[in-house]
Each structure stands twice: as structure tokens, then as C-alpha cells.
Design goal:
The complex is a heterodimer.
Chain A: E1 4-13, E2 16-26, E3 31-35, H1 42-50, E4 56-64, E5 67-68, H2 74-79, E6 82-85, E7 92-96, H3 97-111, H4 119-132, E8 143-144, H5 150-164, E9 168-172, H6 180-192, E10 199-204, H7 208-212, E11 217-222, E12 225-230, H8 233-241, H9 251-257
Helix pairs in contact in A: 5-6
Chain B: H1 2-17, H2 23-39, H3 55-58, H4 76-81, H5 92-99, E1 105-109, E2 119-125, E3 132-134, E4 137-142, E5 147-156, E6 160-170, E7 175-183, E8 189-198, E9 203-210, E10 215-224, E11 229-238, E12 243-252, E13 258-267, E14 272-281, E15 289-298, E16 304-313, E17 319-327, H6 331-338, H7 344-361, H8 366-384
Parallel strand pairs in B: 1-4, 2-5, 3-6, 4-6, 5-7, 6-8, 7-9, 8-10, 9-11, 10-12, 11-13, 12-14, 13-15, 14-16, 15-17
Helix pairs in contact in B: 2-5, 6-7, 7-8
Classes of the chains: A alpha/beta, B alpha/beta.
């Protein structure tokens, strides 16, 4: 059985339907890229999978590791191994990064039947992971994302992913706002986590990220539906001809032309 | 009227039963009691008490306070200050406290003296079969250029009424850090008024941490001189049917004064709270710089907060800002924490704790900071599980 099986998923925000029947199967060890213009529903799909209550699921089903994912609370999804790297990581003044991450890790470890890490072991683990992402250790003692630059926030997401070791990682526009050096570092962090036991869904608007995180499959999302699926060459094709080449209206491009 | 007469009657009985004091003190007590009788307990028709109904205090027949020791003798320099800063002519509770003045906790820091260790004053009410009343009185006189930190803690068990008055005189150039920690029992009434007269270029901080009590009023009143810097920090936590009223008054009497005020409240259950922040900038007080902020986190649908700034500005070259917010826990922050595996209730308590964090961070006495962190953590954790 596949790790994740999405069948005919519909979701709305308010009275607007955003996802209009998504079906997608993701297996362990695979990296799937979801591409599409702004407003196509990419981020909505990512957030629905993580359990954001802002969106109402109005149809379809999602089976994750044999369980009905949509019936699970966000924290239970995380404990079962789902991780969402946020497009816009939230700033939480007053909660230290260290405390937050230790609480998260130990909750997840407990769920997996592993012993909780003490302060020393935890510190050793995070230092190791920070090195991979070239992160300043001082960030650990700062409040979660508060006052972080855009790049630091994105790095922090991937760093959390490296510490929490999910089975299904969903990266929501992790490339947006990163300069090329930061993009390389972040992609290096992501690639280090690729493994036969782990699946990834990489959501992106631009093909650039996929030069560094090479996907096994590429899906193109438009107006809440997957309109085309293929191998990694599909991303290159999009790079050449743009979304317009597939007959898809890109809001951003359309606005630019208007 | 009968009810009022009855209320006063009980107090009159206790008043006449008091051991006689030295003539100067006896005179003070009698004047204060006379004023109390004239004023009576405030009602919600009184603007100052609009949101706080003290009827439960007024209608309780408290047993006299249990202090057995004879009135202590205050040194003459203390007599100079006692009841000079806490005016009782418009304040029934201050009048009542003064009428029952007996023991005074008197702290005097001589000129230029730097006291490194915090001074702890602990008022603990012992619970009895019948509700008792105590009128703790504190007088702190800090000489010019002296420095000290003072922690006043109020706690107790059972049902009782604490009616506290604290007077602080901070000499010119002094640095005074005052903390009031209100940890009264869940059944207690607490009315506490603090009055501080601040000298030229003094640096004064008053922190009010209000966590306990059933019906609570915390008053902080400071009068600034030229170049004085005053900081007022406050944190109030209410749950169940608790009511906490915070009234602050910052009087910029002279030029070049600075005041910063930050009060934060966390409300849950059917509790209610009040923040009323008065700032007076007198005609002479040019170049005043004053900032007031009140933020409230409301965790339930039934909790009620009344927040009101009260600015009286008579000078023209001043900077005064004020702002108040009332909000719930941020849904995005909740989702972020939950998406990392942290349970909903734990996420709530973590964010609630985070809301209070910046007030706790301002506590400069390490032992107090530690114990407040522990108390808050337990409070929120308890709520979560």
C-alpha cells in the first residue's frame, strides 16, 4: 500500500472551492513536485494535508499509512510522521526555539515508542543538524522565528524537519525568497534527508528549486486540479514554455500583462 | 441607609476596641476613621469603582485583626512620611487602613546606600473559622542616590480581607525597584494601594503581579518630579469567577519626566478584569514622555475586560501615547505548534505563557523571576490537563 493516497479531494475556504478533485499517490522513497501558478491550490493542498482548519474538506479521501488522515488532528498527523515546511513560518515571540523544538521532538518520539531525549542528547542532535544547514546556533535561544530574516525562517523549517525526521515531508514554496546560496544550502539539507523510508512533496512555483532537489515525479496543478503529470523532464518543459505553454493562465503573468 | 449604618457599625466596634496608641497616631487614626464614616464603602456609581463592586466586602462582618503586639514606635523621620503620601480624604479603603494603623513595616535606606540583595516583605493571612481582616501598612523611605529592590508578597489561606497600603518615598537620584506579588487565597478579598513620591532624576519601577484572590483591587499611584523615570509593569491572571481591578495613576508634576507602562492580562472562565490607566501631565511638566500599553488575552467567551486610558494633559510640549488591545490566541500560531506534534491544550498553554513572558522577563530579582516562571508554568499546565 502506498504511504499516501489522495482520492478526488475537494476543499473550500469560505464558499470558494479551491481544490476541485485532486488524486495523487505518493510512495515511500519518492519525491513528488507539485508545480502550478499562483492561486492554483498548491499551498491549499499542502495545508489541508497538514490539517489546517481554515480549509473545509468537502469531498474525497486521504489515506496515510493505512489511516484516514482527514479524521486526524494536526498534532496527530505530525506524530504519525507528517511534516509541513511552511511557506510563511509563524513568528511566536515568547517561546524559545529550543524549548519548542524539544517539546515537539519528545512528543513525537514518545508517540514512536522512543525514549525522550534529555537536554544533553537533544543539544548534540540539534548542533549536528544545524551544521548541515549552516545555521547560527544563537538562533536556538531566540523566540521561534521572531526577527528572523526570510532566509533564516526557511532554513529553520528545514532544520526542524531534520530534527523531527518525518515520513512524509511537505515543502511549501521553500524556495521563495531565497538567494541562490541559501537555496543551495536549503536544498542540500533537504537532499540529505532523502531516504527510501521517506517521501517528499515539494510545492513550488518555479522550476529553479528542482535543479537542486530533483524530483521523481512532477505534477502540474491548475485551478484546483492536476492537469498534467510526468517525470522530472516535465519541469524543464515548463521552464521552456511557461504555464502558458500548457494552456494555463498564470495570475501573476496575467497581472503583469494587464 | 440601615445597611450602611450596620456596615459602619461593625467597623466602629472594632475601632473602639483598638488599644490606644501614642497621641500623634491616635489623632491620625481618629481623623481617618471619621473620614471613612463620611465616605462609606464606594459603590459602582462612583466612577473610580464603576466596574468593581465591593459589596461583598462591605456586607461581611470581619473579625478584628489578630495582631496582639502593642503599637510599635516609629522613629520621628518615619512619622514625617507616614500617611503623607497615601491620602485618605477621597479613598475609603486607605482611610480604613489608616484608622486601624498599628504595626508599620518601615524600611529606610540611607542616602547613597546600595542594597544588593532584594528586601522581601511577606504578608501572610492565616485562615480562621471566621473571615478576618488585616490592614498591612508599609513605609519605604529611600535616601538620595540610594538603590534597592523590594518584593512585597501577599498570600494566605481561607477567607479573609487584606486591605494594604504602601507608601514609598524615593529620594533624588535613587533607583528603586518595587514588586508587588499578589498570591492571595482563592476566597480572599484584597485591596492594595501603593503611593510613591519620586524625587528628581529618580528611577523607579513598580511591578504588579496579580495572580490570586476572589475580588482584587490593585492601585499604583506615582508622582514624578523633574527628570524622573517611572516604569509600571503589570500582569494579571484571572480565571473562574475572579475579579481583578488595576487602577494606575502616573502624575507628571514636573518637566522632563518619562513614564513607561505595560500591563498585560490573561482572562479565562467567567472572570473579569479592569485596567484603568490615568496619566496626568501638569502645566509645568513640559517635555514629558509617556507611553502606556494594556494588552489582554481573552481565552474564553465569558470573560470580560474593561480597559480605559485616562489622559489629562495640561502641558503642550509633551509626547503621550497609549494603546489597548484585546485578543484571542492566534490561530496561525496554534496551527504551527500543532503541526509540529504539540497537542492543542499544550499549544494553548505555551502561547498563553508566551504572552506573559515579556512581563516576567522584566523582573530583575532572579529568585522572584524563577518562582514566577514556575507558578505560571504550573498554572497553565494545570489548565491544559
Amino acid at each position: 500500500m502506498a504511504l499516501l493516497e489522495i482520492t478526488d479531494l475537494h476543499a473550500t475556504v469560505g464558499d470558494r472551492e479551491i481544490l476541485k478533485g485532486i488524486s495523487l499517490t505518493v510512495d515511500s522513497g519518492e519525491v513528488h513536485a507539485i508545480m502550478g501558478p499562483n492561486g492554483s491550490g498548491k499551498s491549499t493542498l499542502a495545508q489541508v494535508l497538514a490539517g489546517r482548519e481554515l480549509y473545509a474538506v468537502t469531498g474525497g479521501q486521504v489515506i496515510y499509512d493505512g489511516q484516514d488522515l482527514l479524521a486526524m488532528a494536526p498534532e496527530d498527523r505530525a506524530r504519525a510522521g507528517i511534516f509541513l515546511a511552511f511557506q510563511y513560518p509563524v513568528e511566536i515571540p515568547g517561546v524559545s526555539n529550543m524549548y519548542f523544538l524539544k517539546a515537539a521532538l519528545n512528543t513525537i518520539r514518545k508517540h514512536r515508542g522512543l525514549a525522550e531525549l534529555d537536554a544533553m542528547d537533544f543539544l548534540e542532535l540539534v548542533r549536528d543538524r544545524m551544521k548541515v544547514l549552516d545555521m547560527d546556533q544563537a538562533l536556538l535561544n531566540r523566540p521561534v522565528n521572531a526577527g528572523f530574516s526570510g532566509g533564516e525562517k526557511k532554513r529553520n523549517e528545514i532544520f526542524q524537519m531534520a530534527v523531527l525526521e518525518p515520513r512524509l515531508a511537505i515543502l511549501d514554496e521553500t524556495d521563495s525568497g531565497l538567494d541562490i546560496d541559501a537555496l543551495r544550502t536549503v536544498a542540500g539539507g533537504v537532499n540529505a534527508l532523502r531516504s527510501p523510508e521517506r517521501a517528499m512533496i515539494v510545492v513550488t512555483h518555479y522550476q529553479r528549486l528542482l535543479n537542486y532537489i530533483v524530483p521523481d515525479y512532477v505534477h502540474v496543478l491548475a485551478e484546483g486540479r492536476i492537469v498534467k503529470s510526468g517525470g522530472k523532464e516535465l519541469a524543464l518543459e515548463l521552464e521552456e514554455s511557461g504555464y502558458a505553454g500548457l494552456g494555463i493562465l498564470d495570475e501573476e503573468e496575467a497581472v503583469g500583462k494587464a | 441607609m440601615t445597611a450602611v449604618a450596620e456596615q459602619i457599625g461593625n467597623w466602629l466596634e472594632s475601632f473602639t476596641r483598638q488599644q490606644p496608641a501614642a497621641p500623634w497616631l491616635q489623632q491620625l487614626r481618629e481623623a481617618a476613621f471619621q473620614r471613612f464614616v463620611e465616605l462609606g464603602f464606594p459603590t459602582t456609581h462612583d466612577e473610580e469603582w464603576r466596574f468593581t463592586n465591593v459589596a461583598p466586602i462591605a456586607r461581611t462582618n470581619f473579625v478584628g485583626h489578630a495582631l496582639a503586639c502593642p503599637p510599635n514606635s516609629l522613629p520621628p523621620e518615619a512619622q514625617q512620611h507616614l500617611a503623607k503620601h497615601a491620602a485618605f480624604d477621597h479613598h475609603a479603603f486607605v482611610a480604613l487602613n489608616t484608622a486601624f494603623l498599628q504595626d508599620v513595616t518601615y524600611i529606610h535606606i540611607p542616602r547613597g546606600q546600595v542594597v544588593e540583595q532584594p528586601i522581601q516583605i511577606v504578608y501572610e493571612a492565616a485562615g480562621g473559622a471566621e473571615p478576618a481582616v488585616a490592614h498591612p501598612r508599609t513605609l519605604i523611605v529611600v535616601g538620595a542616590d540610594a538603590q534597592c529592590s523590594i518584593v512585597e508578597t501577599y498570600s494566605g489561606a481561607g477567607s479573609y480581607f487584606t486591605n494594604a497600603v504602601t507608601e514609598i518615598v524615593a529620594g533624588s537620584g535613587s533607583v528603586v525597584d518595587h514588586y508587588k506579588v499578589q498570591l492571595e487565597s482563592p476566597a480572599a478579598f484584597h485591596v492594595g494601594a501603593m503611593f510613591a513620591s519620586l524625587g528628581r532624576s529618580a528611577n523607579f519601577t513598580a511591578s504588579s503581579i496579580s495572580l490570586g484572590g476572589a475580588l482584587v483591587r490593585n492601585e499604583v499611584s506615582v508622582v514624578l518630579s523633574e527628570g524622573t523615570e517611572a516604569t509600571l509593569n503589570g500582569l494579571y491572571l484571572v480565571n473562574g469567577s475572579q475579579h481583578v481591578d488595576n487602577h494606575t495613576s502616573i502624575d507628571h508634576a514636573k518637566p522632563h519626566g518619562t513614564s513607561h507602562e505595560l500591563y498585560k492580562g490573561i482572562l479565562d472562565g467567567k472572570a473579569s478584569a479592569v485596567f484603568n490607566g490615568r496619566i496626568i501631565v501638569r502645566k509645568d511638566a513640559q517635555k514629558t514622555d509617556s507611553k502606556q500599553t494594556n494588552k489582554n488575552l481573552v481565552l474564553s467567551d465569558e470573560a470580560v475586560i474593561d480597559t480605559k486610558p485616562e489622559l489629562q494633559i495640561f502641558a503642550d510640549d509633551v509626547r503621550c501615547t497609549h494603546g489597548a488591545t484585546i485578543g484571542q490566541l492566534d490561530a496561525e500560531s496554534m496551527f504551527y505548534l500543532q503541526s509540529r506534534g504539540i497537542g492543542k491544550q499544550d499549544a494553548r498553554s505555551l502561547l498563553t505563557y508566551a504572552f506573559a513572558q515579556d512581563i516576567i522577563d522584566r523582573v530583575k530579582v532572579p529568585s522572584l523571576k524563577d518562582s514566577l516562571e514556575r507558578i505560571l508554568f504550573e498554572k497553565f499546565h494545570e489548565r491544559a490537563h
